[in-house]
Amino acid sequence: MSEQLHRPVHQSPPRAVVLLSGGLDSATVLAIAKDAGYECFALSFDYGQRHQFELAAARKICAALGVQKQTIFQLDLSIWGGSALTSSMSVPKDRVEPSTAQEIPVTYVPARNTVFLSLALAWAEVLGAFDLFIGVNAVDYSGYPDCRPEFIEQFERLANLATKAGVEGTGTFRVHTPLLKLSKADIIRKGLSLGVNYALTHTCYDPFPDGTACNRCDACRLRLKGFAEVGQVDPASIGSSGENVRS
Questions:
Q1: Which residues does residue 69 pair with via DSSP β-bridges, in sequence order?
Q2: Cα–Cα distance for residue pair 156/152, rounded to 1 Å
Q3: How far is it, in rounded angstroms, from Cα 12 to Cα 6?
């Protein structure tokens, strides 16, 4: 895991693979990577998630931020379920507080970040890139085991042990987690300073059929709380008429 952005001297500009779900966090990470001077390649996943509206959001974000290339990888994790995001299991609503480090929520998708980072690493090898960006956050999403700093550190070690580039010493892979210790409000402030259009993003785990956010799941509540703390209305919660959308 690297807080300082690593820039390979043999690339100008350096390339990076950015995991982009289409949500608020990953859009902010993409903007951070772009601002740092990276040529960004966005990797999104159609993994059988119930909130597939995030993929359309990811395309819009890529267009808005001028991504070099976006790949949407099809990987159907719903074939074995195990999560409220990939099965008929209900998404928790109206919880006073999101999950804690002692409680792994039912929205955890088994080994998702391990799988996603592994595929990002494979693409990075092909691109000659040594920088991977992921929007994990240990503050707001501390219940997810694959969002912890320990996981990122160990994956970075694996990346340099299990790749041709790592073995031959032609480069050192770094996994950047610029949001790891930020609150949701801090993430939003950072994104706004970089010009992120959060109206393009999609966060809700259980949206209405037309894509409107439920405003009741943990993801929605954390997002709304973040915007409230920075003194703004979430632009994605406002309809074209200027009225708040349903909740």
A1: 41
A2: 6
A3: 13
Q: How far is Cα 112 from Cα 114, in angstroms, rounded to an integer?
A: 5
pLDDT digits (tens, 9 = 90+) for 119-154: 999 999 999 999 999 999 987 666 789 999 999 999
| Amino acid making up residue 80 | W
Q: Contact 92/84 with Cβ under 8 angstroms?
A: yes
CA distance 48 to 104: 20
Q: Are 176 and 37 within 8 A, CB to CB?
A: no
Q: Give 91: exposed, middle or buried? Use CB within 10 Å, 0-12, 13-18, 19+.
A: buried
pLDDT of residue 195: 97
Q: pLDDT band for position 101 (50/70/90)?
A: very low
Residues 131/176, Cβ–Cβ less than 8 Å: yes
Percent over 70 (pLDDT), the chain: 88
Residue 95's pLDDT band (cuts 50, 70, 90):
confident
Residues with Cβ within 8 Å of 215's Cβ and at least 6 positions away in sequence, in order, are 204, 221, 224, 237, 247
Reported as a pLDDT band with limits 50, 70 and 90, residue 98 is low
Q: Structural domains in the chain?
A: 15-237 (3.40.50.620)
Task: Please state, in angstroms and rounded to a whole number, the distance separating the CA atoms of residues 150 and 177.
Answer: 12
Nearest to 142 by CA among 87, 180, 106, 172: 180
Report d(CA 168, CA 12) in Å as an integer: 22
Decide if 118 contacts 86 (C-beta within 8 A): no
Strand partners, 46: 74
Q: Are the C-beta atoms of 130 and 6 separated by less than 8 Å?
A: yes
Q: Which of 144, 116, 146 is nearest to 132 (CA)?
A: 116
